[in-house]
Amino acid sequence: MFRVPQTCKGVHPLRFWPFIQARCTFSPAATTSLQFISDGYENENKDLDFKLLFSSCTNVHLAKRLHALLVLSGNAQDIFLSTGLVNLYANLGDVSFARHTFDQIQKKNIFTWNSMISAYARVHRYHEAVNCFYQLLLTSCLQPDSYTFPPVLKACGNMVDGKKMHCWVLKLGFEWDVFVAASLVHMYSRFGFLGVARKLFNNMPVRDMGSWNAMISGFCQNGNAAEALDLLDEMRLDGVKMDPVTVASILPVCALSDDILVGILVHLYSIKHGLESDVFVSNALINMYAKFGNLGHAQRVFDQMEVRDLVSWNSIIAAYEQNEDPITALGLFKEMQLVRIQPDLLTAVSLASIVAQLSDHRNSQSVHGFVVRRGWLMKDVIIGNAVADMYAKAGSVDSARRVFEGLPVKDVISWNTLITCYAQNGLASEAIEFYHMMVEHIEIIPNQGTWVSILPAYSHVGALQQGMKIHGRVIKNCLYLDVFVGTCLIDMYGKCGKLDDAMSLFYQVPRKSSVPWNAIISCHGIHGHGEKALKLFNEMIDDGVKPDHVTFVSLLAACSHSGLVDEGQWCFNVMQEKYGIKPSLKHYGSMVDLLGRAGRLDLAYNLIQNMPIQPDASVWGALLGACRIHGNFELGSIASDHLFEVDSENVGYYVLLSNIYANVGKWEGVNRVRSLARDRGLKKTPGWSSIEVNNKVDVFYTGNQTHPKSEEIYEELEVLTAKMKSLGYVPDYSFVLQDVEDDEKEHILTSHSERLAIAFGIITTPPKSTIRIFKNLRVCGDCHEATKFISRITEREIIVRDSNRFHHFKNGICSCGDYW
DNA sequence: GTAGGGTTAG
């Protein structure tokens, strides 16, 4: 209760009253209170209930009116009222106004300071909260009290600040206050100082629910699942029951440690004790079930909620988004807007991810605009990264780069996002360049995500030595080998031709999930070791690891590369019947490839005709490729008709078709296809090959003449071609699409990128050492033949990895047995 | 008029 002081005689403070009444809605109680002010001005003895007045201000607008009123009535310097205003603004989330009001107060007491400090802590402006505490010590003659410390302890961002604060607690003698003690316990356990936290906890003379929760939640936020669960058990033995706070702390830990059993038990406990009605508990349940991939349970919890807040909506949207159901997630987002819940930054993060999954570039721009309009891009790096990733997944590399450049703060994930963006959009060299730029920023410390981004780029261009450097860094920096980093390394060694190293690494990584198994099976496949791939698959089953759709893509490809037709068909059946995996386009593509290469064109065509889904270019392309191998131009033209319907842009298919015609001497057809490709103005995917010499990757494009060693390379090729011809090499012009004279055709074949790279290898590496080449497209048939001769002439092992598999050339023979 | 321990993230 408050009595209006006699300060502002002369001006009626409430001459604005009708004006305020017209614009603001106060509760009836508040209206009465305001009337009281008015009356109090007339009759100075009336008591006013300002508490009511404060509580009736439900938005910043109303608060400002009340504030103006207090200023006008001369009450702004009153210590009770002004502190009330600081709190009011803080509760309404406007901490800058709270600070402004705070600064205006001339005689602050400890309540005022405590209000300001907790205002900062509540909105997570921790740095300012701590600064405010030190300001209190330095600029006022006031002593902090037991109310001061809990928010300040929460605000300590690191152990150095935390220890300093602990000293102040001890100095001023507040360590036995139950709230302060709980805050200390929580702070130490949050930073992983579990021993200290435990000691403080054990020494507490009084323990309430909050003390237990402080200790448990500290463990939880630190990811110490086992300790958290142990303590929970101890609490139970002590006869203390879990409350909503305990449950909301423990549920994320169940998800983190993949402990679905405890998760369900805690859920049952919550139902039994009526804790489900707590919105934090329900939200935590939704999140936990989402992480277990159990959308049904998540949805059920959401449906049963009586009160849903922003976090509930964000959680259920993210649940669907992260379980690859962007359509439902988008529907929920719309529903959320219908019930007038305002989205926040985290909603936008999910939204960006939803749009990325739908790979709809137009919507990408709307989401980007949505985020920019609200100023969120400048506010938090997380949303910036999400938007960059959204563009990356939509293939808009330039947009992703622009978002990245515009970020006020870039963290390691921003860099990782861009590296992945380049790598996944086929720009491996750019990804590598970007990684080198990142390394120059010493404040950015690479993490596991960085290795996962950069290793595939190194695999892609075959940079074995640089990939091994990363392996070295991983060993140095990480205590254990993360499954994903481990798998990337396996993939890198495998794709760089080091199958043995891939294998020994495989036995070092955790093999509970299908991820590393898929990688090692795929590695054996591209090396043409189909039998070994099947053996690994059986081992995987014996180990109790469940194969997924990726496993079968790798496995079918492995069978296809090795000509294991029966085994491939067996896999295709097992996949559907035993594991209930519906074949995707990739599986069909592999099957058509497998059957087609083996000459079972009838079966392959039959399979396509009976597909329950629409075949895409890769499926028809596989059939066309098989037709070229087996010289079946009738089926080839059927395949190409379908192919050009679904993809008329890929010049590779025109080359294939013209090869088919050329092989059976139908020059008319060859010319027709060539002019078709020309008329459609098709740009050929530039073929390139790379080779790593002395830690440096050199990339050669077909016809490249700008390389510093260009002259020597072409000289070497001329000498080689002459020797090859004397051994019986005849150039196969059917691999030349251009309509030119034969000697020009020979020149074109000789300047294919793989040959330039091989010649460069020959002149820059010691005699008889192995040459490793990478080609982005399939190796050309003529080059394949030529490389056999070159391996014989130079007595070198030449390993060529193309977009499909490995070719191991030695003594004039290729490991693929010309089955490719 | 002031305080601790809880849910969502790229």
UniProtKB/TrEMBL annotation:
<dbReference type="Pfam" id="PF20431">
    <property type="entry name" value="E_motif"/>
</dbReference>
<dbReference type="Pfam" id="PF13041">
    <property type="entry name" value="PPR_2"/>
</dbReference>
<dbReference type="InterPro" id="IPR011990">
    <property type="entry name" value="TPR-like_helical_dom_sf"/>
</dbReference>
<dbReference type="InterPro" id="IPR046960">
    <property type="entry name" value="PPR_At4g14850-like_plant"/>
</dbReference>
<dbReference type="InterPro" id="IPR002885">
    <property type="entry name" value="PPR_rpt"/>
</dbReference>
<feature type="repeat" description="PPR">
    <location>
        <begin position="309"/>
        <end position="343"/>
    </location>
</feature>
<feature type="repeat" description="PPR">
    <location>
        <begin position="109"/>
        <end position="144"/>
    </location>
</feature>
<dbReference type="GO" id="GO:0009451">
    <property type="term" value="P:RNA modification"/>
</dbReference>
<dbReference type="GO" id="GO:0003723">
    <property type="term" value="F:RNA binding"/>
</dbReference>
<dbReference type="InterPro" id="IPR032867">
    <property type="entry name" value="DYW_dom"/>
</dbReference>
<feature type="repeat" description="PPR">
    <location>
        <begin position="513"/>
        <end position="547"/>
    </location>
</feature>
<feature type="repeat" description="PPR">
    <location>
        <begin position="278"/>
        <end position="308"/>
    </location>
</feature>
<dbReference type="InterPro" id="IPR046848">
    <property type="entry name" value="E_motif"/>
</dbReference>
<dbReference type="GO" id="GO:0008270">
    <property type="term" value="F:zinc ion binding"/>
</dbReference>
<feature type="repeat" description="PPR">
    <location>
        <begin position="411"/>
        <end position="441"/>
    </location>
</feature>
<dbReference type="Pfam" id="PF14432">
    <property type="entry name" value="DYW_deaminase"/>
</dbReference>
<dbReference type="Pfam" id="PF01535">
    <property type="entry name" value="PPR"/>
</dbReference>
<protein>
    <recommendedName>
        <fullName>DYW domain-containing protein</fullName>
    </recommendedName>
</protein>
<feature type="repeat" description="PPR">
    <location>
        <begin position="208"/>
        <end position="242"/>
    </location>
</feature>
<feature type="domain" description="DYW">
    <location>
        <begin position="728"/>
        <end position="820"/>
    </location>
</feature>
<comment type="similarity">
    <text>Belongs to the PPR family. PCMP-H subfamily.</text>
</comment>
<keyword id="KW-0677">Repeat</keyword>
